[in-house]
Records
---
Amino acid sequence: MYAELIRALADDLEGGGPTRDLLGGLAEDDADRPTLFVLRLVGGLHRLVLDGKTPALAASYPSVGGAWDREAAWPHVLEALAVHRDALRAALAQAPQTNEIGRSAALAGGVLRVADRFALPVRLVEIGASAGLNLRFDHFRFGSPSGWWGPADSGVSLPGAWEGLSPPVDAPLEVVERLGYDLAPLDVTRDEDRRLLEAYCWPDQPERLARLRAASAIAREVPARLERRSAGDALDDLTLVDGTATVVWHSVMWPYLDDDEQRRVLERLDALGATAGVDRVLAHVRLEPADAYDGGYPVTLTTWPFGEATVIGTAPAHGLPVTWTA
Ligand SMILES: C[S@@+](CC[C@H](N)C(=O)[O-])C[C@H]1O[C@@H](n2cnc3c(N)ncnc32)[C@H](O)[C@@H]1O
């Protein structure tokens, strides 16, 4: 759907139509510094649809019960560009925000390994957490060839989440603290923030939207502390706690950090790791793009004491399925 919609918008932009007028210089700026302006624009359109402001266009959006039809949709897209210009300009000024629940499948397997190895209660710390939905991963349900892990009545059920070697599903897991940090955190108890996250979900991927909504409902029941802080600043203030394993986790946020902040985070983790012991553990679980892994992202686990990094699996960008290799 978005391939067709974006192609139509691109043709209109190149032809000097209303898309060019709306975007102003954004498309040209993007050549110097990627702004993801296309995702901003289609997110803004989806937001109008979800808010019920464009009933005619909604008929082409599967997320609200419509069926995508490029020919039928295009005149209503043009109408929306004209009628809702202010709302779309506001959307263009905002960086896209996503919180992908499928990525919790990688986190769950990493944390289970930490719980299995050290048998300590877990403090979960997420940098680039967005709305912090994945901080509630232990309230989600993950399917694998050997069965399910997680509460049977969870609203977030991810069939086929795990493939390959099974994570240690019998590990004693207790999450005692949930801390999330983001430059632009979203609060799913606010309708406005929840709607924003939904708008960046692609309208013809109803399963992603459904799990986002179900995870938001869980997040309203299971508290987590979410703060507006950069990854570097957040880790500078982090300390380890005796009798716990502190698990620092992040997914698909690393490319947003500049080289200095990336280095700062890694140096801070090493420094914290130097203070770790078997009853005061630090772990780093990450699902991030890497050049060496064509078509998939490695899931990496590092634990201190010892400090060795191991690739324990691979996953596609949205996390499902994770193929566990270690
Ligand atoms: C693509 S989203 C991924 C969100 C979430 N980790 C997930 O996987 O669903 C990237 C997130 O990183 C955040 N971010 C970007 N730069 C950051 C920084 N320097 N420090 C903390 N968060 C940052 C953004 O605000 C955004 O929420």
Note: Residues 36 and 230 are 20 Å apart (CA to CA).
---
Amino acid sequence: MPAQPQTGPVAGRLPADTLARNFADLHSPLSAHEARVAADRCYFCHDAPCVTACPTEIDIPLFIREIQAGRPETAAREIFEANILGGMCARVCPTEVLCEGACVREAAEGKPVQIGLLQRHATDSLMARQGHPFTRAARTGKRVAVVGAGPAGLSCAHRLARHGHDVVIFEGAPKPGGLNEYGIAAYKSVDEFAAREAAWIMEIGGIELRHGQWLGGEITLETLRDEYDAVFLGIGLSGVNALGLDGPKVEGMHDAVTFISALRQCEDLSTLPIGRDVVVIGGGMTAIDCAVQAKGLGAETVTLVYRRARERMGASRFEQDLAAQRGVRLIFEAAPVAVEGEGRLSGVVFERMGEGSEGLAPTGDRFTLPADQMFRAVGQRLGDASGLKTVRGKVVTQGSGRTDMDKVWAGGDCGVGGDDLTVTAVAQGRDAAEDIHGTLTD
Ligand SMILES: Cc1cc2nc3c(=O)[nH]c(=O)nc-3n(C[C@H](O)[C@H](O)[C@H](O)COP(=O)(O)OP(=O)(O)OC[C@H]3O[C@@H](n4cnc5c(N)ncnc54)[C@H](O)[C@@H]3O)c2cc1C
Ligand code: SF4
């Protein structure tokens, strides 16, 4: 069949009801009855492997027992004690490689306890009630600056506020939540959950949130260190890696994170332009989210191309299968080498890759995919390091996030220990807060 001429991105490829279906909640929440039935499957293991697999070490059997006993709100308190963003983590954690992947019932029957859905049931129950579950300790008179209102910053700020410190969050973007607000796939966090969760976290009191405050712009690390007793950096990775490709300069090449951010902030998805033939380059969660959402907006073909073998993909098997079910074609062991088009992108040339004794190498075998839109999802890097020591593009930290600079801690994606998961960022923000608290009250 001859290739159809490329038209470029167009808005409104699908009717409103189809768009609503494509971006609906990925998992339906459990009813109270379903939650009790799911909780009944837990063996309440000693030294439970699910707990060890959770970066925030939530006491999973304990909270499941509370749900089983019909006390979801007590269960939620247990969860929030370890992870104040337990509501978001219940929605976005790749549980298949964390708690549920480690569950003994997964090993025995290939069917783990539904820990993620149970956690969502508990946290949603408590968050639907009036009032915040924690109160602040007496004020200490110490002031801490937190830079970045993503999962790491919010978690750190909440824990510090609980200990009685006064916290100011300096955030560059107009809304709090970091990638919860601007990055996570729309179908994982529906109904403005990121904004509602951030507002709920602030209910602890003692946290002031200042927007439009960029480190390296409106504020500097030097002044923060002068004016505050401690500083926590949770600035994530705002830079985007480039792809050096041959070929003409053409329209239609985008960065996946920018596209997803625009999609998350778009009030009417029928106004968001999308190509007819979309190519996504990358192998992580961002690549999958970009591809699935491009398909959801109405792209006719979406092809995700990853340069290594399937097993090496950063995205879990669940995410890969989700993409395939939603009509995304996955191609492995191929890397982009050039783009084609006159003014507008019309195709992307790939070369097959092979794992040889010297590692990954091009084989010389090339093919071209027709494309009028291409998204790069090949990793992000640190924006402003503010003079801190870095290694492989991340801030060097030791212990619970201490940097090489006096009074400065860092955590989440921007730190060397970050592994690009919401739950890890939450754990590191919390642990840095405990370390800061210990230092300030020594
Ligand atoms: C598209 C995408 C999808 C993802 N999907 C998942 C998923 O499904 N599940 C999962 O577990 N993880 C997912 N992740 C990873 C997860 O979102 C991150 O690991 C997590 O958000 C890191 O939290 P953080 O607080 O360290 O950084 P961020 O969430 O990036 O927050 C950093 C905050 O700092 C602010 N900031 C940055 N620079 C400055 C500055 N110079 N001055 C002031 N403020 C600044 C930013 O505006 C932002 O609010 C995804 C990531 C992406 C990109
Ligand atoms: S490993 Fe599975 S069965 Fe055991 S406590 Fe955790 S959730 Fe329950």
Note: The chain has a mean pLDDT of 94.
---
Amino acid sequence: MSDYQEFTKQINKKTGIDLSLYKEVQMKRRLTSLREKRGFNDFQSYYNAIAQEKELLDEFLDKVTINVSEFYRNASRWSVLESKVLPKLFEKKKKLKIWSAACSTGEEPYTIALVLSQFLDLSQIDILATDIDDNVIARAKKAVYNERALQEMPTKIKETYFTKDGTFFHLDEKIKKCVTFKKHNLLADSYPGSFDLIVCRNVLIYFTEEAKHTIYQNFSNSLVDGGVFFVGSTEQIFSPDQYNFKVLDTFFYQKNM
Ligand SMILES: C[S@@+](CC[C@H](N)C(=O)[O-])C[C@H]1O[C@@H](n2cnc3c(N)ncnc32)[C@H](O)[C@@H]1O
């Protein structure tokens, strides 16, 4: 077994994160550069240090879980959600069950809440948001953002739901209350069910084809018939029919009824 493979086994045991399900070339490149930056010549000695020093472990986890996010990421897709997908889902029921998976620091689930606020009273909105990384979940719960995270946001929404504090923007408590955050590992945990809409964007690109296949199947099982799966803008599904999906619009898949 190679030095890197042995390392992935040890990390899996310690953290529950199975690196072998992430694309190896990319992941190995990222971790090799971090390891070298910290002065370790091989992964075994790097692991020994990680096992002893919490700061090194946190830094390592930060590198594995690429956390970049922003509100209304790829804004044109959110317009499609608002003008086409949600009206279609609302034809059947008013209270939708929604999951934002791999939600990072909260921009994505809060964007869903902000879009839904155009249709519903805020008390009607309840979104589950999950991520593997405790640190991003803690930041998501605080909901304080810099200007960059808000750059794609419509000005009216920004003025209505954010309070500026120096260079930071605080999200309104009423929107915060629409989202419940939980820890969830897409590669290891069981999936909750009966969702009308699942949003999972900009994480599947990091996984192997085999892992993606299992995840798509799990998401399909987690949706109600007619439910919609919204993916990131480089993440089209190859042969969606194998997961009982049909294309509703670019990057939106609907589970067959
Ligand atoms: C680039 S962010 C995407 C955030 C947001 N969905 C978006 O599109 O802006 C990727 C997120 O996936 C999370 N992640 C990585 N591996 C995961 C796993 N196995 N299970 C759940 N979340 C994971 C990371 O912690 C990170 O917050």
Note: Residues 26 and 206 are 8 Å apart (CA to CA).
